[in-house]
Specification:
By secondary structure, the chain is of the alpha/beta class. The chain folds into two domains: 165 residues, Alpha/Beta hydrolase fold, catalytic domain (Rossmann fold, 3-Layer(aba) Sandwich), CATH 3.40.50.1820; 87 residues, Lipoxygenase-1 (Sandwich). The strands form three sheets. The protein has a five-stranded mixed β-sheet. The protein is elongated, with a radius of gyration of 21 Å. The two termini are 30 Å apart. It is a peripheral membrane protein. One of its GO terms (cellular component) is extracellular space. GO terms for molecular function: galactolipase activity; lipoprotein lipase activity.
Length: 257
Amino acid sequence: LSGLDPAQPYFQGTPTEVRLDKSDADFVDIIHTDSAPTIPNLGFGMRPAVGHIDFYPNGGEEMPGCGKNPVSQIVDLDGIWEGTRDFVACNHLRSYKYYSDSIIYPDGFLGYPCASYDLFQEGGCFPCPEGGCPNMGHYADKFKDKVKTDFMKLYLNTGEARDFPLWRYKVTVTLSGKSKVKGYVNVALYGTGGNTKQYQITKGALKPGNTYTAYIDVEVNVGEVTKVKFLWNNNWINPTLPKLGAATITVEAGQNR
């Protein structure tokens, strides 16, 4: 049984007979997309974990792409009716959109078990545990026999619009060169499953010999990494023409470590 952002008003905090609960089926998975308090935030979805596994995409409160200005949202690609509904209840309705996307991405929407979204964002719950991560949505039941705890809270990030799934990687760059400069470092991944756009690993002071780490959520499962593109820029013309390179770049996929 899959709960798509089960309702908060009149249901949150009520006895299990009244609301959705893991006692309702052999396996209950929940997607929370609008769990901010109803007052004053108008959150329609409940916050507590009530299933065998509970997914909190993007932290479970504010979904990317839902903060667009009302006009652009109402005259949406999906038409005026869909856009109007999204304007009124965009976060709440993301749950079924994630679910429908999950059907065509059996390897997508990996939920990382974690104590909080902040900890997940910092990379504290990376990579997936030995037994793997469950997939949010249609294929969540593949994880049915692996649930060991009473409640399992899972976190992940999604895109702003279709296609929604993102894949998480840890990228570590050690710089080489002769002089310290200011600027940013970008990396793009290439692999057997596709290529990503550039993602920023760090910005500010760049010092040769230093190591910089970032957790990136990319728009394609690159599969086996075949190439990594490294780019740095210092944003302004520097007459000394400083040179920076990457001594090493390490890429770790959250999915299979």
